[in-house]
Design a protein that fits this description.
The protein has helices at 2-22, 31-47, 88-95, 168-171, 190-194, 356-360, 442-445, 449-454, and strands at 75-78, 117-119, 124-132, 139-145, 156-161, 172-177, 180-182, 197-202, 205-208, 214-221, 224-227, 240-243, 257-261, 271-277, 283-285, 293-297, 321-327, 333-339, 346-348, 379-383, 386-388, 391-395, 405-409, 412-415, 426-429. The protein is α+β, with helices and mostly antiparallel strands. The strands form 6 sheets. The chain has a 6-stranded antiparallel beta sheet with strand order 1-9-3-14-13-12. The N and C termini lie far apart (67 Å).
Length: 470
């Protein structure tokens, strides 16, 4: 009897053991499905209900936010010498592009573009003012910014000439008074302007900045500022004109641009500049700004650490990867990796070199910038495009969510996704979002999050005005 009893007990143990182990047997058809199903169920339990049928996880919004880094300072120097000379004949011909007739209707400029910026694209260039017909005490300067990090509104400025009338002796090399060339004296000021100064040649300003930067010119007249980028003007109307290098008059200036600026918002330019190359000519670009998104993501991990048959809320801290992404007009993705709270491998764009721990130069099990583990500076990089299976061609990105992010789980790479009306493993927010510290629940820091998920997608800024954990 004991023999049969023992055999029965062994059979029960064997069956129980086999059944409990069966779930862990390798099944390539089931692994990703099981991970996602588990995550979906746990996510719904976490928010306390079903997901709204039109929930798109922030990727349908435009946040108009920027990456939290700033452009480095440019080096702008007034120089004494200049490789080119602007003759009176040249200046007269250039003025033909910018007819002045302020007593009648605004004049149509004979220019190529009326709203633009320069893409530096070379280590340096020169800016020289060659003509002024203003009666105002204008300030003249440049503004510049990195289009991958900032909008034109956030550009830095540098004053070239603080007062075009007052600064004759400080800024100008030559001037024509009543049709005669004169050399300005350091003490020359308003009295010289009153004698009819128009044709001038300022000392050239050497512009040295990062080759990815954009820059433009501005003139400030009292409390009004007019820019080469019309989008920055108060009335959004052009107050400038540019003549391209193909129309420049003299051979020695064939790689230069002639720029006119109005100091009153009326088409017809009182100030004329020449932008000249050093190594190569700056490129003329149409101003635009990037829409930045902060992507916060979970690595599909869900645990019951305290064995209470419920997944711990603290597993949903959404800091396993935090990355800011913006897509430019060329379909390139500009990325700034901010944090990595995962101990699993996570990589971007299917690139082994873009694994988050490798980018931060830490060990795979180390968490970065989550108050647990080391602190590192954000890591910036640009993706030229993505590849599809069986095709080596780079395809441009159309949307931020098209930048693939994968986690290595159960011996394979699984993509983090944001499917409509289903549990998201990645969510888009603005760059002012402060991600939770490690093991701090997202809904603890941002109590509106469950409501945003389930009921009211009008709560698009669910992270606003909430207590922050860091």
């Amino acid at each position: 009897m004991k023999k049969y009893l023992m055999m029965s007990m062994l059979a029960v143990v064997f069956c129980s053991t086999f059944t409990s182990c069966k779930h862990d047997l390798y099944d390539p058809e089931r692994k990703e499905k099981d991970a996602r199903e588990l995550y979906e169920a746990n996510f719904k339990a976490y928010v306390g209900g079903n997901i709204h049928s039109n929930q798109k996880w922030g990727f349908d919004q435009v946040f108009k936010s920027r990456a939290m880094t700033r452009t480095n300072d440019a080096t702008i120097t007034k120089t004494d010498g200049y490789p080119l000379s602007f003759t009176p004949n040249y200046i007269e011909k250039v003025r033909g592009f910018f007819p002045e007739d302020n007593n009648k209707k605004p004049t149509t400029l004979n220019t190529d573009v009326t709203s633009w910026e320069f893409h530096q694209s070379a280590p340096m260039c020169y800016v020289t003012m060659i003509y002024s017909n203003t009666t105002a005490n204008d300030e003249v300067g440049i503004y510049y910014y990195d289009p991958a990090k900032e909008t034109p509104v956030e550009a830095k400025t540098f004053v070239l000439i603080d007062d075009v009338k007052k600064g004759l002796g400080n800024y100008y090399q030559k001037m024509i008074v009543n049709d005669k060339w004169e050399n300005p004296n350091p003490t020359d000021g308003y009295s010289v302007w009153d004698r009819g100064v128009q044709k001038i040649q300022s000392s050239p300003f050497q512009i040295v900045m990062d080759q990815s930067y954009y820059f433009g010119l501005y003139v400030k007249n009292g409390d009004k500022i007019y820019y080469t980028n019309a989008n920055l003007n108060e009335n959004l109307k052009p107050a400038a004109g540019l003549v391209g290098k193909d129309r420049t008059i003299e051979d020695e200036l064939k790689n230069s641009y002639v720029v006119g600026l109005s100091d009153d918002g009326i088409e017809g330019c009182e100030l004329i500049f020449v932008v000249t190359k050093s190594n190569s000519t700056p490129k003329v670009v149409t101003p635009s700004s990037l829409d930045w998104y902060r992507i916060i993501a979970e690595d599909l991990n869900a645990h019951d650490l305290d064995n209470d048959q419920e997944v711990d809320d603290t597993d949903f801290d959404f800091n396993d990867i935090v990355i800011d992404i913006a897509i430019d007009q060329m379909g390139k993705a500009h990325c700034i990796l901010q944090a990595a709270g995962a101990t699993l491998q996570i990589r971007i764009n299917n690139d082994p070199e873009l694994e988050v721990h490798k980018l931060f130069k830490v060990g795979e099990k180390e968490m970065v910038n989550t108050k647990k583990g080391p602190t590192r500076d954000p890591v910036e990089f640009t993706l030229d495009g993505y590849k599809v299976k069986g095709d080596d061609k780079l395809h441009p990105f159309a949307r931020v969510q098209d930048v693939p992010i994968h986690v290595y789980r159960q011996n394979e790479w699984m993509e983090l996704t944001a499917p409509v009306a289903r549990a998201a493993s990645k969510i888009a927010v603005a760059t002012d979002f402060v991600w939770p510290d490690e093991r701090v629940s997202l809904k603890t820091v941002y109590p509106k999050f469950p409501e945003y998920v389930k009921d009211n997608i009008d709560i698009t800024d669910w992270w606003k005005n909430q207590p922050k954990s860091r």
